[in-house]
Amino acid sequence: MRTTRAAAVAAVTMSLALAATACGGGSSTDGGGSNDSPKTLTYWASNQGASIEVDKKVLQPELDKFEKETGIEVKLEVVPWSDLLNRILTATTSGQGPDVLNIGNTWSASLQATGALLPWNAENFGKIGGKDRFVDSALGSTGAEGKDPAAVPLYSMSYALYYNKKLFADAGISKPPATWEELVADGKKLSKGGKWGLGVEGSNPSENIHHAVVFAKQHGADFFTADGKPDFTSDKAVEGVKQFVDLMAKDKIIAPGNAEYAQNQSVSDFAKGKTAMLLWQSASANLKSQGMSEDAYGIAPVPVQSGTPGSGTSVNSMVMGINLAVFKNTDNLDGATKFVKFMTSDDEQKILNEAYSSIPPVKGAQSDESFNTPANAVLKDTLAQSAIAAPQVADESQFETAVGTAIKELWADAAAGRPVTTDSVKAALEKAQQQMPTK
Amino acid sequence: MTTTVPAKAEVRQSSPGTADGPRRRPGRIRRIGLPYLLLLPALLLELLVHLVPMVIGVLMSFKELTQFYIRDWTTAPWNGIDNYRMSVDFNAPVGEALLHSFLVTLAFTLLSVGLCWLIGTAAAIYMQDNFRGRGLLRALFLVPYALPVYTAVITWVFMFQHDNGLVNHVLHDQLGITDKPSFWLIGDNSFIALLTVSVWKGWPFAFLIVMAGLQNIPKELYEAAALDGAGMWQQIRRITLPSLSPVNQVLVLVLFLWTFNDFNTPYVLFGKTAPQAADLISVHIYQASFVTWNFGTGSAMSVLLLLFLLVVTGVYLVVTSRGRRTKHA
Q: Do A435 and B38 touch (CB under 8 A)?
């Protein structure tokens, strides 16, 4: 009898415990943040350095500094790029996320639409020293126009043309190409004996998009209409994408194998001297970690169709970068704001952007000596004069996937020797457009 | 909690009229209720782990669950069967892509299961004879099955690479079968690559199960057959295969379900966006929900997939069990 009762009690207890844990998980997803746990913060950092370990080494001393100043302990997790968006989506859905996090600036409008991120209105900006501290171009990629930004700029980057000085000299080329015509001509001289003119990351949809947006713009096309509707198949957009893929299909200055690259193999190829040119953002730290010394390569602006980089059809990069966002349902709102203030302070901006070879989006830090090297000057000029923001529409992230994947398939065609024609490019973009949300 | 109700009802039905009822009832409730009480934790866990997520998944499929609502999906508007209508409208892009993916998956599954079964059975039959090194070979055959999926598949990714991959090195550089290195991870060949990895990973399981089944076939049958003049091929056809049929029925069903639903292999092999030729349905659904942020459509597709697999399984079980019954009659 006693054992029966004991067993019954055990069973009921266990059931209750189960029920309790089932209901207990998940804090409320509605409402704003609170200050229930003022002593800790969780921070998801994106992978900016050559590896996650490198990032931890860069960030941890700064977080320790923050803890000393404020007494708030920051738990750091560096999330690889392949997982970051999924992790953010999951956190959004479950309400179980970090307090502060890095987001790719092109996702700003998409994530803003979920309503999970703290809007940076005048009051919140006031707490971190005001909106004026940030560079305009960087602020242009923090959310849809007319809405309070969903994040604040943390690191700014732009694309540049990295070229191998020795290979250029061997081929008798005296200066880096300034137009695509010159790039193709140089590329043909360089593509011989197992070496190739240019490298691309063909199976990485995001990389494809970053270039496609610029190529389309150089032909005068946008992928979204002014009121935010997808418009992928205009003749000019098709021309732009075709010119990009033709670098492999017609001009044959890209090794066919590049079509399946998605793990930054094109950076390794460049570091090993297998390709002579690379279009990349902030590659310096990465190249150094792969054993390529800084004297071995030069940095030039990404080519344009004609003339020199500027606005309109002379743009030559997207405004790339990382934004810092606060989850709306954080339980340490004050701490999170303090942390954002700390990370965007002039001093921290200098340290962090130097470590990641990016450009500070904070005016006070950008004027610092260390960002005036010739390499950084190229990036800075591009950002200031000839970079366009990613489309700030809620469907941006779907656009990256749909069109990025369409271009991936076009690279596959080019690599297999199948013809890439205006019609085939248009068909690929048409299919991508049909995949976009209709509402 | 609902489980205790039938127990009580049962007690009430059987107890009226007994003279010593009132005093003994609590004891009887306790005695009859205890098994249910002990089942309660398991039942709750089952509800929690299996049923609740499934019901939520089905509910989600009737909602317009896009990025605007995922933060609190209870606020997402109901949109009836729109998600389903969109998924099965084969003239529109979404439905057309789903149909394409479904057909690719079906072809892939049939080929993969067929090859897994064929290779597994052949190997198991050869391994029946006693010879030196048999144990070693058996162990070796099971290695692909024992390896963690990620490790195994990522190794294949390296081997399938265009520039430095082992596959191209052997096929092109050494044997000269192809006139230029082929692409395996993009384009049309990706189907072959996927099939290769799937069969490589799946056949050891068929081998293991068939080998176990073979142990139950009495040796005398073969001896008698040999005396009657049956050759090896006839022995396999007339004795081995019929004796294995109950094992095979389960084996083929399990392999079919696993292969049809396989997510890990294509995901590790191709990443988030699979090439057209190898666009398996599990990755397709993943892309429809996670990459395009439309979880409602993704759920609807999942429910359709579930229904399809239920129908296939049901029909398969009915057909095979009828076959068994007529044989016994």
A: no
User: Region A113-126: what's the mean pLDDT?
Assistant: 93
Residues of B in contact with A404 (CB under 8 A): 273
- Per-residue pLDDT of A412-436, as tens digits, reads 999 998 999 999 999 999 989 988 8
Per the CB < 8 Å rule, is B64 touching A415?
no
Is B44's CB within 8 Å of A92's CB?
Answer: no
Q: Do B37 and A14 touch (CB under 8 A)?
A: no
pLDDT in tens, A247-265: 999 999 999 999 999 888 8
Q: How far is B94 from chain A (nearest CA, A)?
A: 7
- CATH node for A40-157+321-388: 3.40.190.10
Query: How far, rounded to the nearest angstrom, does the alpha carbon of residue A260 sit from its chain's CA centroid?
Result: 20
* Distance of alpha carbon B26 from alpha carbon B305, whole angstroms: 49
ipTM: 0.80
Q: Inform me whether the C-beta atom of residue B41 falls under 8 Å from chain A C-beta atoms.
A: yes
Interface touch A416/B187, C-beta < 8 Å: yes
Q: Is the pLDDT of residue B79 over 90?
A: no
> Which of A11, A257, A401 shows the shortest C-beta gap to B163?
A257
Using DSSP's 3-state secondary structure scheme, residue A282 falls into coil
SS3 of B164-196: the string is CCHHHHHHHHHCCCCCCCCCCCCCCCHHHHHHH
Tell me the pLDDT tens digit for each residue of B54-76.
998 899 899 888 888 888 878 88
d(CA B128, CA A14): 49
Given B34, B272, B294, which is nearest A7 (Cβ)? B34
**Residue A60 pLDDT more than 90?**
yes
In a 13 Å sphere around the CA of B33, the CA atoms on its Cβ side amount to 22
Span B146-187, pLDDT tens digits: 899 999 999 999 999 998 899 999 999 889 888 888 899 988
**CA atoms of A231 and A225, how far apart (whole Å):** 6
Q: A112 to chain B nearest CA, in Å?
A: 9
Query: What residues pair up with A5 in beta bridges, in sequence order?
Result: none
Instruction: Please say whether the beta carbons of A341 and A334 come within 8 A.
Output: no
Domain extents in chain A: 40-157+321-388, 159-318+395-434
Query: Does B23 score more than 70 pLDDT?
Result: no
What share of chain B in percent tops pLDDT 70?
90
A418: nearest CA partner in chain B: B187
Task: Return the pLDDT at A62.
Answer: 96
Answer whether B37 sits within 8 Å of A409, measured CB to CB: no
pLDDT in tens, A174-216: 999 999 999 999 999 999 999 999 999 999 988 999 999 999 9
CA distance B272 to chain A (A): 9
DSSP string covering B41-106: HHHHHHIIIIIHHHHHHHHHTTB---TTTGGGGGGSPB-TTHHHHHHH-TTSHHHHHHHHHHHHHH
The fold of A159-318+395-434 is: D-Maltodextrin-Binding Protein; domain 2 (3.40.190)
Write the pLDDT tens digit of every residue in A282-336: 888 888 888 999 899 999 999 999 989 988 899 999 999 999 999 998 999 999 9
Residues 70-89 of B with CB under 8 A from A: 70-73
Per DSSP, A390 falls in state P
Q: Do B292 and A205 touch (CB under 8 A)?
A: no
pLDDT band at A21 (very low <50, low <70, confident <90, very high): very low
Nearest-neighbour CA in chain A from B278: distance (Å): 12
pLDDT single digits (tens) A291-306: 999 899 999 999 999 9
Nearest to residue B201, comparing CAs of B129, B296, B116, B123?
Answer: B116
The answer to whether B286 and B267 have CB atoms below 8 angstroms apart is: yes
Q: How far is A401 from chain B (nearest CA, A)?
A: 7
